[in-house]
Write a structure and sequence with these properties.
Layout lengths: L1 E2 L6 E2 L6 H9 L6 H16 L3 H5 L6 E2 L4 E4 L8 E4 L2 H16 L18 H15 L7 H14 L4 H8 L4 H11 L2 H9 L9
Antiparallel strand pairs: 1-2, 3-4, 4-5
Helix pairs in contact: 1-5, 2-4, 2-6, 7-8
């Protein structure tokens, strides 16, 4: 269960599917600057597994399109790490970087407002909720859910646990193991799927 830090409430962890994330992106304008920015922001959180605070702390100089890397200098606990971003995700991010440069912003946060000021975490959470409703997604849509989705997809692709640990920026491997088992306990799911089919009509 995920815990709301403000109200102490718990929510079931429901990772979004790739189709649901695509549905979110389709709700963002492909021409308006804010839509281009929001598409890039969602993509970075989803495809890099970044915390919302890490994404909002990024600077343009910390993205290397040629190498396909994002340098997270201000991770949790002050720890830095380098993560990879696939070509498709980098293309969406590059489009925002180009638009940002056209708007005349060379310094400050990568994901900025049209005035060049930082985008707030509250804005991102509200934006994702709104996009989720517009996309008709019944799950709770929030920034950390994209990180959950990223972790689950990597595990499903057979990526080694220690690599997932580094991508997510977990200090201990046990944290990553707990994180994944909390979301999608692969061994339990596999056991349930492998059981003899149950047909009540045959009882």
């Amino acid at each position: 269960m995920a815990v709301s830090p403000r109200k102490g409430r718990t929510f079931p962890v429901e990772p979004l599917t790739s189709a649901e994330v695509a549905a979110l992106l389709r709700q963002c304008s492909t021409t308006a600057p804010t839509g281009i920015r929001n598409r890039a922001l969602i993509t970075v959180m989803y495809r890099c597994g970044l915390r919302v605070s890490e994404a909002l702390d990024l600077r343009a100089s910390e993205v290397n399109p040629a190498n396909g890397t994002v340098h997270v200098l201000r991770g949790k606990g002050g720890k830095a790490r380098v993560v990879g971003l696939d070509d498709g995700g980098m293309a969406l991010l590059q489009r925002w970087m180009d638009k940002r440069a056209q708007l005349g912003y060379k310094h400050g946060p990568l994901f900025c407002t049209l005035r060049g000021t930082p985008v707030s975490g509250v804005y991102v959470r509200n934006m994702m909720k709104r996009l989720g409703r517009k996309a008709g997604i019944e799950k709770r849509v929030h920034p950390h859910g994209l990180r959950h989705s990223h972790a689950v997809e990597m595990a499903a692709e057979g990526i080694a646990m220690n690599v997932i640990q580094k991508q997510l920026g977990h200090h201990r491997l046990s944290t990553t193991d707990t994180y994944l088992n909390h979301i999608a306990p692969a061994d339990v799911i596999a056991m349930g799927r492998a059981r003899k089919p149950w047909n009540p009509e045959e009882l």
